[in-house]
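Because discrete structure vocabularies remain unfamiliar, we turn briefly to a single example record, giving the amino acid sequence and backbone structure tokens:
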Amino acid sequence: MSRYLFDHLEELEEFKNDNKSTILTDIDGTISEITSTPEEAVITPSMKKELSKLKEKFRMVGVISGRSVKNAKSMVGIDGILYVGNHGMEYVNNGEIFIDPEAVKYLGNIKKNAEQLKNSELSKINGLMFEDKGICISIHYRKCKLQEDVRKKIIDAVNSIDTNEMKLTEGRKLVELKPPISRDKGFIIEKIMEKYDLDRIIYLGDDVTDFDAFTKLKELEKTGKIRTASILVLSSEIPDYVKSSSLFYVNSVYEVQRFFKWLLK
């Protein structure tokens, strides 16, 4: 189990006092509260204010989200920070959206799979929501009754169609279909580190997809090339293996903002 962040802040003084540090964070469940649907989620004005201040103090601030990069940029709405979407398969560079060439190959298949799933028996389930993110399809069941049964029906439906070997993954009350390429938050963090020659990274996340980021940061730390700190926003929906993968944890989005305030003191 990771340790409660606010009992060990002294270990992050080196990040706080170095303006070359980089702050990378997930969005949903980390800097915005989890809501019934993605559309309902908001980043509060006070959280945006802290993010803007972090951007001014530190070398880089970025968001790495499962949302599409266009949606992530619209939601956060801060110029001058790095935006990465669809778990690392797209990002904004000089105002333009760049999609990983390997992922582009599967856009047609993803669109076809989305239509098949929307026209399947899943469409009859009350509360189920399809989110077409271009490169990926997320099927949310947070608003459904008998959630575990619905989860199984989603997985069965995906397995019953010709997905052309697309990758099936899961997050907090969602099942996702994505291209079968080795791209995740850990992969993109390493690429960001190499591209910008970073030597200190703090990463914050709240979901199973952040496990890849936490694990990669530990690997990078062992090389001696970079100092890292990983922070999990704890919830009852997080599996134990994720809880033990980060160095620290906090209990809420509010505590994330409290940590940001501490970094700015």
